[in-house]
């Protein structure tokens, strides 16, 4: 469901792999009975046009049903725990010119990527509260 990478791609304003996330949330938030029924009806390919055309914007994420929000919230927390430092530590390093300049170019770029990823994840946490 989540493609070769096994991850969803989030942007600042919306989910970039919205179809995968939408289907995954829908399935994971179903009861066992709902899942059996959905599967028997070939629900994988017969979603309504409204669902197919609904982008998972930040606004849409904040309106998800509570079980889906909790699932996303817990997933984001697990992802953040996989990092060796938190958002504040990254921000402090970016703001410390002397320490930042001691990093190699590659380390600086990695820092910017990690910081951006963590900011997006923290934004998602706020949206699914």
From TrEMBL:
Main location: nucleus
GO CC entries: nucleus
UniProt xrefs under InterPro entries: Rubisco_LSMT_subst-bd, Rubisco_LSMT_subst-bd_sf
UniProt keyword S-adenosyl-L-methionine present: yes
Gene3D superfamilies noted in UniProt: Rubisco LSMT, substrate-binding domain (3.90.1420.10)
Key words, A-Z: Methyltransferase, Nucleus, S-adenosyl-L-methionine, Transferase
Chain ranges of the Rubisco LSMT substrate-binding domain: 4-121
Annotated transmembrane regions: none
Signal peptide limits: none
The protein, known as: N-lysine methyltransferase SETD6
Organism encoding this protein: Bucorvus abyssinicus
């Amino acid at each position: 469901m989540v493609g070769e990478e096994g991850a969803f791609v989030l942007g600042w304003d919306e989910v970039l792999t919205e179809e995968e996330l939408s289907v995954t949330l829908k399935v994971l938030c179903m009861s066992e009975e709902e899942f059996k029924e959905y599967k028997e009806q070939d629900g994988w390919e017969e979603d309504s046009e409204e669902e197919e055309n609904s982008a998972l914007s930040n606004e849409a994420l904040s309106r998800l049903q509570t079980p889906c929000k909790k699932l996303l919230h817990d997933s984001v927390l697990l992802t953040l725990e996989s990092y060796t430092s938190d958002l504040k530590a990254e921000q402090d390093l970016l703001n410390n010119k002397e320490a930042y300049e001691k990093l190699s170019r590659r380390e600086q770029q990695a820092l910017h990527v990690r910081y951006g990823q963590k900011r997006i994840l923290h934004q998602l946490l706020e949206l699914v509260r």
